[in-house]
Amino acid sequence: MASVLSDMTRDAEVQAAIAAVRDPEIDETVAALNFIVGTKIDGDSVTVTLRLPTFWCPANFVFLMGGDIRDAVLALPWVRNFKFELVDHFAADEISRGISERQSFAQVFPRHAENDLGDLRLAFDKKAFLMRQEALVDFMRRAGFGDEFLIRMSVAELDGLADAQGGELKTLAGDYLAKRRGIGLANDDLAFTTAEGEAIDAGALPRHLRHARKVTMSAQSNGEMCRILMAARHSGAACAAHGFHSEKGNS
Amino acid sequence: MYVTKSGEKIFVIDAHVHVWDARPENRRNRYGQTFIDTFYGAHVGMTPPDQRWDQNRFNYYGAEGAAKDLFEDGYCDMAVMLPVYLKDFYINGFNTTKLCSTLKDLHPDKVVLNGRCDPREGQMGLDKLEEDFATYGFKGVKLYTAEWNGVSRGYSLKDDFVAPYIEKCRSLGITNIHIHKGPTTHPLDYDAFDVRDVDRVATMFPDLNFIVDHCGMPRIDDFCFIAGQEPNVYGGLALIPSYIHARPKYFTRMLCDLLFYVGPDRLLFGSDYAITSPKWIIEKFMDFSFDEETAREAGTQVTLDVKRKILGLNCAKLYGIEVPAEFQIKTAA
């Protein structure tokens, strides 16, 4: 009984650890996107099973997500072994093994990958930075902050303001500043810059934000396609793949 | 032809249609099944419930089925066919030029039949392109950069073996190059949907038109940037109008940004048939407009003239199709 209870607690810890992992392409959590289909705890061993909206989702983004899930689970002090299980995917075996055994992407796909995924992650972290910046600036403009004020604000000032006001501002600013640090921008600088750290004139801010809205539009529309396909897969409309071997037998 | 309530006539060209064969007996392997499953998932998710097909019809509807859905029920005056072979997945190919030509045989005046080529096939592929051109005489070809071909999982337009194919198109008088990105482009570590390689060929071949299928979705933001720089890059909308029923809010936002960054003269309507069908999309699109704030953000309302361009006039220009005066924009543009 004691071990059942402890497994339940451990499962809750695993769920909490992986819920915050994000799809790097659309900057939404795996929990919100419904990608996790199961977790299994066996003493100090954890298995996480992932199913994506389609058999053909890009291997590289799955690999990044899988690595983040692995790192989040292994950060729990009691976890000794981690196994990743990607199901119903064209590269399911390679990715499951690669993530479980801590291989690099280039090791897993030696014929098809030239580099590891650092550049790809950075490119999408910069997009996520712009998306979060746009959401935050939009919120602050609606709350009455002027463009001249925003472009001169420092990171420390934003941090202080977010702490003082709390609520949605604190959430938006926290998410934004985390991603800002993630792309390597210094903390002793202006709060609102381009993804390359360049200052933005008040006159150029509308154009910059228009660009950022376009990045958000693209990612969110893509996210909706994931949801559409995921719903179809869950409903059974698009998951006949399971039956293929029995139907065709010889493949 | 679509006729508005006030009697305005719209010339409709569906610039992205297929006739495919995904029946079980044509599937080479599990990939053939999962590929059509993914399409069917999109069909079910995007199509209004009363218009959905069962999976059998979706696997194969034939030229007769397509003719009814496009030309009888779907308001299309013409349709552009874009072959995708996928012979690694389907025994006789998925949507070959030959299969597409069965629709052309039924409606020779309504169907624009395009070819395809795979630049990884060297001299053999160049010869095949020439042979297909002699048979079908097309004005456009489709390049599906994500197509698997033996050990290759796709290619980039920056690869050095691509330019000779585009040179060959130019010399044959094939002026419209349709480019489709997909999920498994080589190398796998790159962003597979990255559209920046289009920039390079568009610059190298300024006299040819490059139509990016699905507007580079899911990289519409990058597509907007490239199309903004290259006047010979066009957006093939297919898939984007399909959002109009299930996700109207996101359809609105995508169209808003495409109109702002690319403009109403370089966007081509496509239903992505048979993933979705033109009938309900066109009905909803003709009733569609932006709210005031979105129109400001887009730089234009979705006026009747904008609809005329997107639904047919833009594509007619690319393919040299003469559109009768009654369908043309009335006011001086």
Provide a descriptive summary of the structure in words:
The complex is a heterodimer of chains A (251) and B (333). Chain A has helices spanning 2-19, 59-74, 92-100, 105-108, 118-142, 147-152, 155-165, 167-182, 205-235, 244-248; strands spanning 22-23, 28-29, 36-42, 45-51, 81-87. With 251 residues, chain A is mostly helical. Chain A has two domains: 2-116, Fe-S cluster assembly (FSCA) (GMP Synthetase, Chain A, domain 3, 2-Layer Sandwich); 119-219, no CATH class. In chain A, the strands form two sheets. Chain A has a three-stranded mixed beta sheet with strand order 3-4-5. In chain A, helix 2 (59-74) packs parallel to helix 3, helix 5 (118-142) packs across helix 9 (205-235) and helix 7 (155-165) packs antiparallel against helix 8. Chain A is globular, with a radius of gyration of 21 Å. Chain B has a single domain, classed as Alpha-Beta Barrel (TIM Barrel), CATH 3.20.20. Chain B has 13 helices and eleven strands. A six-stranded parallel beta sheet of chain B has the order 6-7-8-9-10-11. A three-stranded parallel beta sheet of chain B has the order 3-4-5. A two-stranded antiparallel sheet of chain B has the order 1-2. In chain B, helix 6 links the parallel strand 7 (140-144) and strand 8. In chain B, helix 8 (220-229) runs parallel beside helix 10. The mean pLDDT of chain B is 94. Chains A and B meet through helix 5, helix 9 and helix 10 of A and helix 1, helix 8 and helix 10 of B. Chain B: This is Amidohydrolase. Chain B: It comes from Taklimakanibacter albus. Chain A: It comes from Taklimakanibacter albus.
